[in-house]
Amino acid sequence: MNCASKEHAGIAGRLESAIIELLALQEVLSCEEVDGRVLTDFRDALNRVRNTAWAAQKYVASRISDEGPGGLTSFLASERVRCAFQLCRSVQEDLQHEDIRFQKGQLVQLQAAILGLNEQLQDRL
After folding, report:
1. Which residues of 34-67 are buried (b: 16+ CB within 10 A; e: fewer)?
2. Helix, strand, coil % (nearest 5) of the chain?
3. Domain boundaries, the chain
4. How far is CA 61 from CA 26, 34, 120, in A?
5. Residue 38 to residues 32, 53, 71, 106: CA-CA distances in angstroms?
6. Nearest 10 degrees: CA dihedral of 38, 78, 69, 5?
7. DSSP secondary structure string, 69-118?
8. What is the rounded distance in angstroms from the CA atom of residue 80 to the CA atom of residue 6?
9. How far, in Å, CA of 5 to CA of 98, rounded?
10. What pTM, to 2 d.p., does this model score?
């Protein structure tokens, strides 16, 4: 078995394991009460994985049909914007909770990234 075949088999096995785990989680979520913030984070993670899987599938299809990746890269950029929007809303909500402790350095880095992004957005709008 060559490296590509081994890698493909490894990915397939991991995906099968993930499917089994997700089905088990589905049962737990149906029976137990879970913190709403944890569920929101879980749903966001699942959505990112779902979109990544879709993008990977589109990439494979574009390679088979010799289409360029332009549409795919635009989709991925749009998906990052959607995720950033959701993440910003979640951080805003977290900042309203006094029981959540943040490290000042992380907040300073986040603010710097947001200011830089804001400058670039102003150029695009």
Report:
1. eeeeeeeeeeeeeeeeebeeebeebeeeeeeeee
2. 85, 0, 15
3. 1-32, 35-124
4. 30, 38, 33
5. 13, 22, 33, 21
6. 0
7. SHHHHHHHHHHHHHHHHHHHHHHHHHHT-TTS---HHHHHHHHHHHHHHH
8. 31
9. 51
10. 0.58
Q: Are 110 and 91 in contact (CB under 8 A)?
A: yes
pLDDT digits (tens, 9 = 90+) for 82-124: 889 988 998 999 999 889 899 999 999 999 999 999 999 999 9
| Tokens read off for 40 | 């929101």
User: Alpha-carbon torsion 118, 81, 97, 106, what sign?
Assistant: negative
